[in-house]
Fold this sequence. Notes:
With 338 residues, the protein is mainly beta. It has one helix at 65-71, and strands spanning 22-24, 58-62, 77-81, 89-91, 96-100, 108-111, 116-121, 124-125, 127-129, 134-135, 142-143, 150-155, 158-161, 166-168, 171-176, 179-182, 187-189, 197-203, 206-209, 216-219, 221-227, 230-233, 239-242, 244-251, 254-257, 260-262, 269-270, 272-276, 279-282, 288-290, 296-300, 303-306, 322-324, 327-329. Helices cover 2% and strands 41% of the residues. The strands form 4 sheets. Strands 1, 2, 3, 5, 7, 12, 15, 18, 21, 24, 27, 28, 31 and 33 form a 14-stranded mixed sheet that branches. The longest helix has 7 residues, at 65-71.
Amino acid sequence: WQPDAQPVGEGEPPPPVEEPPTEEPPTEEPPVMGPRDLGPLPAELSGLRWPTAPAITREVTVTDGASLTREVGVAGTRVIANGVSGTSVTVTANDVEIVLDSSSRLGQLSFAHGVHRVRVVGGQWSGVRFPIPASWDGGGPSYRSDWMAEDISLEGLRVVSGDIAFDVRGRRIAIMDSTAIAERYSVWCGDTGPMQTEDLILFRNDFDSAGPESTVRLVSVLRTATVENRIANTNKHNYRIHGLSDLAYARDNVLVGTGVMLGRMAGDTLDRIWFDDNVFHHVAPDLFNPDGAIGALRARNNLVMTDVWSCFYCGAPPAAWDIRDNVVMPYEPEPAGR
């Protein structure tokens, strides 16, 4: 039921008219454009690829959710969003860039199947979800390679989620300079069936999960770099790799509360794994727990502050592993204000 329309009274101002977004030619690139300097990588990771930047041909400024939703469906668009709140956003076009100011508070950021070359900068979100590349028609799932999202760069996002903060899968995905506060996973990467997520980069983020699930869990990844992040949890592991995974590299991260699990689940096959120069402020039962079937594992120069363990890896490692120069010392909490 809708009330009868009431005429505008004599002498009263007319109702406000929504202003269309202003359209301008593209300006200079917004700052903080990837790729970044990840520092030295193993030679085997020379094939790690950053997302390709979107090809931008037009720029618009929006101040409301309806306009934002409409413009992210136009290929080649950079959308400058100021003070937008409340709405969830699904990017349905290729070659889209969204730049949000600090006052923008939105719902979930999603991507349509097979979307390519999208960059999102800033804003507070309730979650980020990449589509599962599968159809359930006829009972499924039936996985499709062309439904994988590709070349997605997420920079400076703040995600506060009662579930999963970054629910990702695809090819050439980078999350940088972002914050996740999540009830479950800060980063969940999986659900690709027989395929792998390729070229996943996590760089200089702050990931904090409440504890029912691990903080960063990567399932079936090929070429991934997790570098200079803060990763925190109160119960489950901070960093886990599972599935069919190869060429996974973690360096210079700070792990607060809990430890690391590499493999050890049914069906896991892990090959070349690096875990170097990380710092633990550790209080949980499990510290560094790799599956003995990992093809090649290197873990060097890690510093562990814990009262739970007296050794980083207790036991004789397999011949193909390189575990050395790791230091265990009494527990110290994470410095305040880090």
